[in-house]
Specification:
Elements lengths: L2 E5 L2 E4 L4 E8 L7 E7 L6 E6 L6 E3 L7 E6 L4 E6 L8 E9 L5 E5 L3 E6 L1
């Protein structure tokens, strides 16, 4: 069983930066792929960035490539999403999820989400 808690969201102006974190409990967290997803009001949830168990492989949505960076510190049971050059369209609730499989993972564990708001 893995429990995930996101933190670090907030309000930022367009062009600014935020780093959101996903802290996990459970000894086997380092064996899971982790993904960051987001959902804006009235829109479907979308994948933003994913990282494999070791951190050696990552995927990014085209909309965030070159602006967002996903990383993980398995010794700290934490995955990060560094978001730079933020745009108003990045406004959403950001969720992290953990799952098995790579590159296609089945995400069985989800956090409660953290709000990111980018003002224009």
């Amino acid at each position: 069983q893995v429990q995930l808690v996101e933190s670090g969201g907030g309000l930022v102006q367009a062009g600014g930066s935020l780093r959101v974190s996903c802290a996990a409990s459970g000894r086997t967290f380092s064996s899971y792929a982790v993904g960051w997803f987001r959902q804006a009001p009235g829109k479907e949830r979308e994948s933003v960035a994913t990282i494999n168990w070791s951190g050696g492989s990552t995927y990014y949505a085209d909309s965030v490539k070159g602006r967002f960076t996903i990383s993980r510190a398995n010794a700290k049971n934490t995955v990060y999403l560094q978001m730079n050059s933020l745009k108003p369209e990045d406004t959403a609730v950001y969720y992290c999820a953990a799952g098995v499989g790579w590159p296609t993972a089945h995400y069985a564990y989800w956090g409660q989400g953290t709000q990111v708001t980018v003002s224009s």
